[in-house]
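Follow-up to my post from last week.
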Amino acid sequence: MMKLTKKWAILLCALFPMTMMAQDKKSFTLDDLMWGGSNYYNIMPRSIHTAWWGDCLLQTDVEEIYQLYDEKGKICNKKCLFTVKEVNAAVDENVHGKVRNLAYTTFPKGGKTIAKVYADKGWAEYDWTNKKIVGFVPHIYGAQAQKAAPQTGARAYVKDWNLHVVTADGTDRQITTDGTREVQYGMSVHRDEFGIHEGLFWSPKGNLLAFYRMDQSMVTDFPLIDNSKRVAELAPEKYPMAGMTSHKVKVGVYNPQSGKTIYLDAGDPTDRYFTNIAWSPDESTIYMFELPRTQDKAELVAYDATSGEKKGVLYTETNAKYVEPMTPIVFLPWDASKFVMESRKDGYNHFYLFDTTGKCLVQLTKGEFEVIEMLGFNEKNKTIIFKANAESPVRHNLYSVDMKGKKMTRLDNGEGVHNAKLSASGTFLCDTWSKPDMYRQVDLISTQNGKTQNIVAPTATPWKEYNVPEITGGTITAADGKTPLYYRLVNPVDFDPAKKYPTVVYVYGGPHAHNVQESFNYGYRPWEIYMAQKGYVVFIVDNRGSQYRGFEFESVTHRRLGEIEMQDQMKGVDFLKTLPYVDADRIGVHGWSFGGFMTTNLICSYPDVFKVGVAGGPVIDWKMYEVMYGERYMDTPEENPDGYAENNLCNKAKNLKGRLQIIVGLNDPTCVLQHSLSFLRAAADAGTQPDYFVYPGQGHNMMGKDMVHLHERITRYFDDYLK
Amino acid sequence: MMKLTKKWAILLCALFPMTMMAQDKKSFTLDDLMWGGSNYYNIMPRSIHTAWWGDCLLQTDVEEIYQLYDEKGKICNKKCLFTVKEVNAAVDENVHGKVRNLAYTTFPKGGKTIAKVYADKGWAEYDWTNKKIVGFVPHIYGAQAQKAAPQTGARAYVKDWNLHVVTADGTDRQITTDGTREVQYGMSVHRDEFGIHEGLFWSPKGNLLAFYRMDQSMVTDFPLIDNSKRVAELAPEKYPMAGMTSHKVKVGVYNPQSGKTIYLDAGDPTDRYFTNIAWSPDESTIYMFELPRTQDKAELVAYDATSGEKKGVLYTETNAKYVEPMTPIVFLPWDASKFVMESRKDGYNHFYLFDTTGKCLVQLTKGEFEVIEMLGFNEKNKTIIFKANAESPVRHNLYSVDMKGKKMTRLDNGEGVHNAKLSASGTFLCDTWSKPDMYRQVDLISTQNGKTQNIVAPTATPWKEYNVPEITGGTITAADGKTPLYYRLVNPVDFDPAKKYPTVVYVYGGPHAHNVQESFNYGYRPWEIYMAQKGYVVFIVDNRGSQYRGFEFESVTHRRLGEIEMQDQMKGVDFLKTLPYVDADRIGVHGWSFGGFMTTNLICSYPDVFKVGVAGGPVIDWKMYEVMYGERYMDTPEENPDGYAENNLCNKAKNLKGRLQIIVGLNDPTCVLQHSLSFLRAAADAGTQPDYFVYPGQGHNMMGKDMVHLHERITRYFDDYLK
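User reply:
Got it. Predicted complex:
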């Protein structure tokens, strides 16, 4: 090492004081920044766990439960309700096992001093007044799904693809017997599309259980392989590809009292989707949305829950492109004859009030914004409490709306991105939120009058001892010449505007997701900080086709996935080229899944613009993607041969000039290996040279420690070829 | 581009005349050099195709057949026997199809003017005196194996794993009916080990057919996947891994006349190997070598070909490490009571003369060299004509030996590497040979008196218009301090001894193969020329464990595959470091299969020596390799747990420091994907970063155009990281 004389050292400090200061600060490792990294939880500022006990807000720490506010919103000065020690004094270790952590405790019996705590052997109900265990629900080991019934204490679960119900007295009954990998009961269906994520639906009082039955025996098996064994084993996945034979779904209703099961009389299930199952408050009726395979129509249909008889179609929505009902109807807590339905029929997702005859009473929300999520109802003032992006497409704020659709009231400060949990009666929100220059804040908000009390003070800028980059947000204009697109721009640490920096475009670009919002650092991904440390500019813009901008914005890509999206991304590149410190000769691109498709597409379509790409789990050819998602956006290969052919990246493999690394999880059941392998085959045939990596034992997205390895890999690739 | 004044240009030429001249020469592309490249056959100097017609040597061109020498070895001045036009005038296109190429014509009926020519629809026998088609054997489409019987004109073939025989009258009989992927008839068995490469063995007169039957229903399926389809399909491979349950083989004998099949009474086939099937000249007896699974004993056993009864054990060989009979016994053409057997029992592969009682009459060849291949007999002077490396371990020369083992005569000039075909009676050899400074020469050699006539003049240095590297050979001393090891050293083109060059060690290193010999360019692989053009030194040394150096040299690696081999390779590196122009900081390594194992092993075991490695189709963990090869060299995992564990490269993945790219054929049935995937998993777990590539649709070795792509890939990797 060169030895500096003191004089020289002082001179250098005088010349580069800023730099020296920045260099004194620490740098993050990937183990700090990546979810799955060994130091992640030490680096990320901690918040508190909270839970509602009726309308009282509690803080659930690992070892203690505190009351923060009472049911009137009056502060309680962290009154301790009970400790993990007290709970463990009450449990019978042989029966319940130990309780190790109270952070996930819930308080479903508002009013009573009863907490549901997680014990080694099950969920225990702890009465903290009497310091006794008053109820216990043992774990079901090996269950593929489970759901507790409200009120009755019964539980439904799935094991070996068959449905079981444990009644409150502990009797465990196997309800179905023909369950197999091919015929599944009580599991999520339709590959989790249409908002589906489960297959067990208890009625409001817990007297009846609706459940899915999916027959996929007619669906082609895709031969996934489990390579973790010495001799690899087959682990096939029923994977219906666009245009191919799909599975058949029915909805059954089991009555634990009679032991009888009926099926809803929905007719031939061939090429149909049944989604968003909802119960009438009186348990007499089941509602669901039904779509034909073409996905151009959705019907809200009512069934008699006892006989299974079809009672009628309450509502029909059609769209030449597609309809996509994502949420079940929700009945008003104070009026069982009315329900709220979400629909994008006017171009944006909004609430509509219906009566049970199917009459639309009123459109409750309206405007060029989207309802993001219904949080519940304030039963006192008869309002819906919900999240929407009415202030800006890149904000999520909290609102109430009355039942006439006349008065929509913002409940928060209108800034940033808010996530809130509603109290039992809907009078309070516990609101965790952030904005670009603030990491996190937690508030208590009254949904009656908007009164806000701060619970966790704002963490404005964490990591003061670290060298963090400047991250800014803004808009550019889409390729249509009019639509604003939101971007995030990450400048390198120790930024010097006189320098030229290599630049990486991060992209997703597909429906149902967005990357840029006005949360902390404009919705940054921690890897961007790592790249900024390494001296990269990182740029992210949400192109048309992405989430929360209304139907037209999303569906302009219909039948031509990738085309409009790329045009918009190239507008982002045009913008980057206006920045004097972006080295236009060193632009890279990276994305995963749809973003892997975009990355591969961009580097093959604009080989002179993008020098380096890293494409994770990419779709390469939409006809190898699954029926529900694939046909919604692309129709079938038979209906749209040109759209499939022109956006099949195998046909573009010959254009590859720069360096492209494709990375996949070897056991990806979502975007099967066929995609990347077809591209490699096409590239070898065409004489182009993509790179490749696989993570054995990983699926569509990397989990755990491999996330660190993966991002070291991605970074190294840009370091090798873009720097 | 900089514009030079004329004066400057002249001055530059004067300063660097050599360089300029070298630069004027052409460079090879991979399409020129690689087998599978589009220009390969234009670049490689052409030879002639020859065929024996009895003892007359013919030249078989695409369009004409010439006679070069008569049966006395008298030159015939390229007398044209017939042309493809004449053959096509004789064929009935509807029956025989067209004849497009005479290059592969054979002349099995010496004496008669009949040629066997390949026609579109079968093999036609053309009588060039009468200009008529006198026989025709139609192609069998979809046959998995086939073999024509001598003399009778019958043919055996395998279709859908069942045995069929077509008799001379054209009757096609299916002999077996229970053939499946699990129970195979007439196919090669024991994964082509022990010299096995086929499963159909006609008796000398064509009256009986011996055939293998392999039951592998008890063998684990390895789930290979055919990814060429839109929905990938399973293409499982029965793959018995070391220590696991293996297949069971029997030998049947079918008599076309009686239609009956018997099986040799060899006892329980569990964990036994049957190999090197041979017939007695009178068709009464079948001989084969039998080994227990331990491979420490080989018995030569005789069976009655009619009853299947075991007649006796003629010879037994044992070895604490392993025995490996590779060739069937061969009866003397002039004495049906005696046969020649090859064995390495004295440490080197030699001929032994036995009588049919099992008495060893004499060791025919002897010395510290190996018999490489028996070419046949000279019946007139009762000698064996064969190839051996008696002049030098890196030469193959042609010899005869008499039946007393007294007189071994060299028939060629003692230089280089010779490949020869023997004429019908064994009086002449057509010898194609090369030596380090000569690409190819073809001679006619009399086995009676060694008289040599030149047929194709020597092509000393082809590619005069190309810039070729200097390739030299030599020896270093092995890590045992005494054994000479042969190397080949390729210097960069435009070599400047004052420069420092990056250097790539190419390695195989396993048994049954060698890389260095005194053929053209010391046995160069054309890719080395490409690398030399790119400015690399390439070095290849055959370590202990490799081929043709005797049993001790090969078997010193027993139970510890990789260890001794690496010690010797490191002696090669020591040698490289003595060369002033080798940059010791830029040493890379590349190899395929066993060489992929060696490459991965070397870069992980000597991470400070090897900066870059490219490992193709590597073995990573010997317990995932197959039973026959694996247990011969490593015993079973149960018998040799330390040997397996210490040479399992997964345990070394953590040591990887430099850049290692593993490349495999996705459908490799020899070294299953499990190997490379296990290594990737181990590396990800350990936080090291190998690179990876797969060729979909390829097996253990790349075929066709992918060879060019592959070598572009390998080269690019060294260019990226070693240059």
